[in-house]
Amino acid sequence: MALPEAEHIWYDGKLVKWHEATTHVLTHSLHYGNAVFEGVRAYMTPKGLAILCLEAHTKRLFESAKACGITIPFTAEQINQAHIDLLKSNTYTDNVYIRPLVFLGYGKMGVSHIGCPVNVAIAAWQWGAYMGEEALQNGIKVKIASWMKPAPFSMMSKAKASANYFNSQMANYEAHEAGCDEALLLDPQGFIAEGSGECFFIVKDGVIITPPNDTSLESITQKNVIQIAKDLGYTVLRQRITRDEAYNADEAFFTGTAAEVTINYVITDAQNNRKMVCVDPHDIPVVAFVDPDMMASMPKGLTAATGMDALTHAIEGYITKGAWELSDMFHIKAIEVIAKSLRGAVKNEKDGRDGMALGQYIAGMGFSNVGLGIVHSMAHPLGALYDTPHGIANAIILPTVMEYNAPATGEKYRDIAKAMGVEGVDAMTLEDARKAAIEAVKQLSVDVGIPADLKEIVKAEDVDFLSQSAFDDACRPGNPRDTSVEEIKELYLKLM
Ligand SMILES: [Zn+2]
User: Fold this and answer.
1) pLDDT exceeding 70 applies to what percent of the chain?
2) How far away, in angstroms, is 224 Cα from ligand 1 center?
3) Which of 215, 265, 315, 495 is in Cβ range 3.0-4.6 Å of 454 for a Cys bridge?
4) For the chain, first and last CA: distance in Å?
């Protein structure tokens, strides 16, 4: 990715032309690695660029420098002003990433840095999502690094020191070589410390957990996320996270100024018993563990539930109003792969696990582009009100809603039946093909142990509330057949 250049760089107190911000090859930091830096973001607002937490970043820059034995020859106020002057001197049309760097300059060689000149540069350029827009939409693959974070007696881990990033760089490199997008580094005791350039969070049973900064950077974004989450009423724990806790987390996400915060596909409002679906790209998880080995220890029931959820994504995505050729391509393949793999995955067979990882991923690529339908709308309030696992709720509701939606789906159920492995579908009447598709879904559901109805889950007195919630749900407008609160109520009643 080419660096999007700007006109000027702030360099030792002056604004110089972008290509003139250079240094000598005998620059001390280039040889011995002692430099500190920051990563700051400025967001384009209607009133122009606004820098996020500038003072906090500058403060950390000075603390990093102090920890590394460097005296910055400017005051914090001067550095803050330099950020502003720099942004004003350049032309930007979008969000900007700002990189202040403090390094030891030219004039002295040898390991000792005593007496070295100190240089300060600040550059700023337009930079999109750190891991790409696709990562925001679909999540990324993460690998536990074989490298560990340096122990507190080995490095200044809290300082944003360039030297610390060598460790990150190697971990990140290793992850990429292994076909993953990012690395997760363990601390010397074997607990998860952070990503190669981001903080790590998990969500488990509604509680947000992030490790203490014993061996990781004191992150400003991490602090902000914790504050926002607390303000929203979430419990946030700073405690060590083990690998298995990460594997079994309900959600996992990275934050950092560069990685940004990309979380929460569904938010539960416990007070009002609502699950809200967020369709803003910034609200879709950036991290999805799709490594089948990680799912090997997943219990049967959860495998069945998440698998049926993925099948629901594929089927709802295939027939949703916004579906088109490209999304169809993903969804029909996902249905085929899931139908073939789910039974095996529930038995913990390797092929089944591999297939499900792939099927879930492909379905995600499809539906995140076009939306879903009322199976999800009806499942969300069950999760909010009764804590019914999302996949189980979907799986129970899916066949009944498929029957209801059938008249609005043209030939699509014929494709679904075929993808589900039903034989002789081409020779069937449309009505029979539709029935065959629904039967195939029901059979799969039975085979993986999903309950047949909502009798054990829904209380009669809640049906009106559930129906209204489902109607208000963000997935409802995507449903192929236009619906009403009354019709949704009938569907719930049919399942009871
Ligand atoms: Zn779902």
Assistant:
1) 89
2) 29
3) 495
4) 55
CATH no. for 8-128: 3.30.470.10
Q: Within the chain, which residue ranges are assigned CATH 3.30.470.10?
A: 8-128
Tell me the CB-side half-sphere exposure of residue 432, using CA atoms within 13 A. 8
Residues carrying CATH 1.20.1090.10, the chain: 298-494
Protein fold of 134-283: D-amino Acid Aminotransferase; Chain A, domain 2 (3.20.10)
CA 313–ligand 1 middle distance (angstroms) = 6
**Does residue 59 carry a catalytic annotation?**
no
- Residue 161 CB burial class (10 angstroms; 0-12, 13-18, ≥19): buried
With cut-offs at 50, 70 and 90, classify the pLDDT of residue 128: low
Q: Which of 141, 143, 158, 160 is catalytic?
A: 160
| Average pLDDT rounded to a whole number, residues 323-350 | 94
Which three-class secondary structure state does DSSP give residue 7? coil
Task: Report CA(115)–ligand 1 centroid distance (Å).
Answer: 60
Please give the pLDDT value at position 388: 86
**Banded pLDDT at 107 (limits 50, 70, 90):** very high
Band (pLDDT 50/70/90 cuts) for residue 263 is: very low
What is the CATH code for 298-494? 1.20.1090.10
pLDDT in tens, 231-252: 778 889 999 999 888 888 888 8
For residue 258, the model assigns a pLDDT of 39
Cα 203 to chain centroid distance, Å, stands at 12
Residue 5 CA to ligand 1 centre (angstroms): 41
Q: How far is the CA of 376 from the centre of ligand 1 (A)?
A: 6
Q: Which regions of the chain carry the CATH code 3.20.10.10?
A: 134-283
- Residue 52 Cα distances to 42, 95, 260, 338, 428, angstroms: 6, 11, 12, 43, 61
Centre of ligand 1 to C-alpha 391, Å, is 7
pTM of the full predicted structure?
0.52
